[in-house]
Structure formats: C-alpha cells, structure tokens
Amino acid sequence: MLPKRALGYQGSSMYYPELEQDSDEAVLGFIDTVKEEGFPIDGFHLSSGYTSYHDRRCVFTWNTTRFKNPRAYFAAMNEKGAQNVPNVKPGILLEHPWFREFAEKNVFVKDSDDGSYAVGKWWGGDGAFWDFTKPEARRAWKDYLIEHVIDIGTDSIWNDNCEYDSLLDKDCSCDFDGKGGTIGQLKPLMSTLMCKTAGEAVKEHNKDARPYMVCRSGSAGIQKYAQTWCGDNYTSWKSLQYNIPIITGMGLSGQPNEGADIGGFAGPAPEEELFVRWVQNGVFQPRFSIHSASNDNTVTEPWMYHNSADIIREAILLRYRMTPYLYSAEYEASRSGAPIMRPLVYEFQNDAKTYDESFEFMFGKDILVANVIEKGAVVKTVYLPKGCKWYDWNDNFTCYEGGETIEIPVSMETIPMFIREGAIIPMADNQIMNMERDHTTRLHLILAPGGDQTYTLYDDDGVTNDFQNGVYRKVNIHMTGSEVVTVDFTSEGVYEDFVEDVVTEMICRGRSPFWVKLGDQQLEHFLNRRKYEEAGEGWYYSQTKRTVEVKYKNPKKDTSLTVSFEDFDLIGM
Questions:
Q1: Cα torsion for 476, 479, 480, 486, to the nearest 10°?
Q2: pLDDT surpasses 60 at 573
Q3: What does the mean pLDDT of the chain come to?
Q4: Sign of CA pseudo-dihedral 305, 306, 307, 313
Q5: Which end of the chain, N or C, is less surrounded by CB atoms within 10 Å?
Q6: Under DSSP, is residue 506 helix (H, G, I), strand (E, B) or coil?
Q7: Count of Cβ atoms closer than 10 Å to residue 494 Cβ
Q8: Could you write out the DSSP letters of every residue in 69-122?
Q9: Per-residue confidence at 570, pLDDT binned at 50, 70, 90?
C-alpha cells in the first residue's frame, strides 16, 4: 500500500531547484500559490538541484545557497501538507567530496579487469556506481540516506537515473550477495534493490512511517517497492496519446502504480489545448505529477493559462473527489496486482473489438474513460464494450447498449466517461483538498444495478503501517436484484472512518421507486427537491437524471438499503 499522499497531485519542476539561490523560498512560494489558486496538493518532487556541489550532482550533499536550512525547509513543506520527495542518484562523480570515503567502504560495481571501481560517464564527468547487490553497500547507502535525507524530514524518496547504462563494459562485476555476477546480467535488479533499500531505510528511521518510493525503472518486483513513471517524455500530442498504452501495458505487466510527466518533461511548454487534455488524462493515472524541464525557460504549472485554469482545476478536484474509489483500487492492486488504469481487454476479454484498443481504458473496474487526445476535436468516437449497458457520466446517465460505437460532442471541458452496468462507485461528496488531512465526511455512492455485484470500499489512516495490524476498514458492498434492489453493507476492521452522511445515487432509467428502506426503516419520499435537500434523510427521484437519490446518516454498523421498483397500480386500485 502506498501512502495516500502518493495518489495526490505531486508538484514538480526542475526549474525551482536550479535557481542560483533561494530555491527553498521559491518552492514554498509555489505551494502557497497552488493553494491560493484553489488547487489541492500532496507533495513536491524535489529535483536533484539541491545536491549541486560546484555545479555537479553529488548525492547526499546540500547546496545551502539554494536551500539555506534544509531541516527547516522540510518542516515547512510538511506543515503545508506537501512533503518533499527528494531525488537521489546511484552514480558518484569521482570529484564527489566524499568519494574517497565511499571507495574505502568498497561499495561500487567493479572493473572487469583490475577489480577496482568501474568508471562510466555520469552527470558532469566520470563516475562510479553503487552496487546494490552487495549487502555491505546496501547498509552503507541506508546510513547515508537516513542521515542526510530522511532524517532531514521526509519518508519519501525519488530514485532516479538508476538504469546503469553508463557502464558500457557489461562484464563489470557485481557482488550479487557473494555469488558474483556481471552488470550485464544484474543491472535490471539495481533500481529495484535501490528502492527496496530506501524503503527499508525509511522504516528503520521510523517504524510507523509508510514509505513512498518513486522510480523510473525496475525489474519484475518493482511494484512491491515503488511507484514508477514513463520516463522523460517530450511535449507533444503523440506523447499524451502513447503514454496511455505505456501505463496500461505496465498494468498488465504487474505494475499498477504508473504515471507520466503531465505536460511533457522535455521540449517547450505545452500549448493551452494540449495542457488541458493532458491534465484531463493525467487525473486518472495512479501517479499524477505535472513535471517539466522545459527548454524555453518556462515552468509548467496548473494556472499557467488563465483562460483554462478553471477547467484544469475542476479536473484535479474531480480526482480528489474520486479518492475513496482510487484508494480502494490501490488496495485491490496491493492484494491482487489488478491495474488501476486498465486496458479494455482486461475487463472484456470476450470482446474482440477491445483487443487492439490502446487509448480508451477502464479507471478501476467500473468507469470507462475515453479522453479527448486529438487536437481541435469537437466530436469523440467511443467504443463501448459488449456484455453490459453503459451510462454517460456527462449526459444525465444516458444509457447505451454495449457493443456500440457512438459519437459524442466534446468541448474543452469534456472528459468522456461512462459508467458500467453493475457499477458501485464511492466518491467524496465534500471537496477533499489534501489526501491525508481532509477526510471524507459525506460519502456519495453511485450505483448502476445489474446482476449480482460485490465491491470493497477500503480505508485506513493512509500514513502509518497500522493497517498491517488490522487498523483499517473494509466495507463490503453487495448489490443484487432488479425489481427490488438490495444493497448490503458489511464491514470489518477497527479503523474508525470519518463518514457522517451518505448520499446514494441509484441509476434507474425505467421508473421511480415505490418505496425505499434503510434496514427495517422506511424512508420518507419527497416530491419536492428543495424539501428533500433540507431534510436530514429521505429519498427523491430525479426525472432529469432518472436516478433515485437517497440520503441518511452513517449508521456506523452493518445495514442494508432496499429500493423497490414494484408496480403500484393506482388505476387498478
């Protein structure tokens, strides 16, 4: 399980840590501006400029011209609810001020000829490379990481540039826990072991802390230790489009926690339309970070285009309202490896038309997303897989039969989304602005009855490791029936949730209910919308959306919601 903050918006840019001085004030100012502009945020990916030593990247060192008091800066970021995720790299320049000390500890990959440390090109010159296959080297890395990074005030580490491609001699030797091997054989393991080592360091420093590791690469098994991203993408429509199958492909390969640099890492600033569409796609990616190193001296920020800031804000706020659904998907991924962003074929393996679909995807099990990813589009063509009905999220739940290809009009505001028949979708009805500090006090359940369906709504504190000792809450939701729809809620775990009120929105295109019960209590039916909104509990049928809305106080115990669509024959009576 990732901490909740790992699923929130991660601010980032190479620009701020590369300023000549006062980078700390610039980052703190960025966080303040994010909040002033009405955006939520949960972290900041701190690029390696903080380690600049004589204009060279030297891991574990601090540039105190840019960051005057690192400990005070980290404390201020934590107070603002945006923990730093500092960048660390496994390459050590020969001119690193501590290089002799590292070499004496014998921590490097070795030259294939003379047994000394192997040398390859690194950021700014020649460098040696940490051997994470060696127990003593792992121990040393933990010690340096704890003292110079983690203890400064973070439980999050960004492990970067750990592909070891700079060692061109693939016969360089590695320890491999005493068994021996070459870098050509073992380099895929290095980034995975680097992340594993960093996570262990976080827990050694604070056994209650839940580590947040980020990495660009890794071998099979990386999903146990780190969230990954698609590498240094380029600002273009093509990158926006093809990052989608990279992420869904990683999901099929066992890594559910993948994302891309939103807006593009390299190249110029994204044009306005491209940036809007990239954010609208990015809010469904498990890792959501707007990150750039633009070559035109700009910084990619959510408010950078005044005319589109409201659209971008609403997309990001939607992600935060989706937190109960997203965090439950994260729990499912931690148990079974099920992707969070899923290719259609994952859910619809008997529909041959999904086999080559690369750009539509399922967000979790129940929401189909068909982002607008074409420049200037005013119409979007969407294929809806066969085997179930689909309800248009943006058009009052208009119903479509599966197996159809439809065209829908789109504007800059449009994020085409469709709800699967049988769906159970929990959302926050109040606007969450920080994954860890603001809790869901009003739960909004969207239900689309169809067949016999079960869903697990999962929650814990999102910060500690107490969930491993039963301090969690799993609410198992079982929905069945058509003429009489029954939704059973049974829970386990000792974590006390923060839900005070529940609003259930059940899609029922055919007719209004006859009666609604919570447990054995029949709820009052309101024909007037205003009176329903003023009441503490009851139900109302929306003719516009063809949904029955039911609201009630959280009973804090197992219960059931029953909605009857039986005939009430007034004429016959």
A1: 100
A2: no
A3: 96
A4: positive
A5: C
A6: strand
A7: 10
A8: -HHHHHHHHHHTT-EEEEEE-SEEETT-TTHHHHHHTT-BPBPTTTSSB--EEE
A9: low
